[in-house]
Amino acid sequence: MTATRKRQSRNKGLLTVALFKFATAFVVTFATITAVRLMHKNVPYHFSQWIDMLRIDPDNRYVAWVLQKLRVIHTKELQQLAGLGFFYAALFYVEGIGLALEQRWAEWLTLLATGLFIPIEIYGLCTKPSAGKVAILLVNIGIVIFLAYLLRQKSARD
Fold first, then answer.
1. Angle at which helices 104-127 and 12-37 pack, to 10 degrees?
2. Taking burial as the number of CB atoms within 10 A of a residue's CB, which of 17, 45, 48, 153 is the most buried?
3. pLDDT, tens digit, for every residue of 11-49?
4. Contact between residue 32 and residue 82 where contact means Cβ atoms under 8 Å apart
5. 70, 45 contact by CB (below 8 A)
6. pTM of the model
7. Which of 128, 129, 95, 131 is nearest to 114 (CA)?
């Protein structure tokens, strides 16, 4: 089989999921690096500086809500968040690479990892519903259904 023909036969669905995993990994990596950089610092103060720099109204109720939440974040919490963030970023990168290379182990890993989070996402949606949570849940359910279908097709062919 020629290289051109092999490239044409790639599964576009797997590539789409891989790109989604890479994007998620990038966002998690950025957030984790930000958390690490804020260790041993006054987090609310730095947030206030960002608000001033971006010219956002500091009296905005959402800004006040974020500041209130940030006051309880200390170095220990940032260390825990950073550890968890690096773990999830690594998982998402591994999933993305494996899916981009169309590896069956990556399909199983992504199916399992994504499927395990669906009950947690449903719980989060029930406790504090939002459009973002609905979107994430629907995307993840779609990924699980797609991968389950794909793996079932592959096992029927084998």
1. 60
2. 17
3. 999 999 999 999 999 999 998 998 888 777 777 777 788
4. yes
5. no
6. 0.75
7. 95
Question: CA 104 to CA 128: how far, in whole Å?
Answer: 36
Q: Is 75 helix (H, G, I), strand (E, B) or coil?
A: helix
The contacts of residue 35 (CB under 8 Å, 6+ apart) are: 78, 81, 82, 85
Q: CA separation (Å) from 158 to 2, 106, 152, 155?
A: 23, 18, 10, 5
Q: How far is CA 108 from CA 17, 45, 149, 152, in A?
A: 13, 44, 12, 11
CB 20, CB 13: distance < 8 Å: no
| Per-residue pLDDT tens over the stretch 119-141 | 999 999 999 999 999 999 999 99
* Identity of residue 71: R
DSSP string covering 21-50, please?
HHHHHHHHHHHHHHHHHTTTS-HHHHHHHH
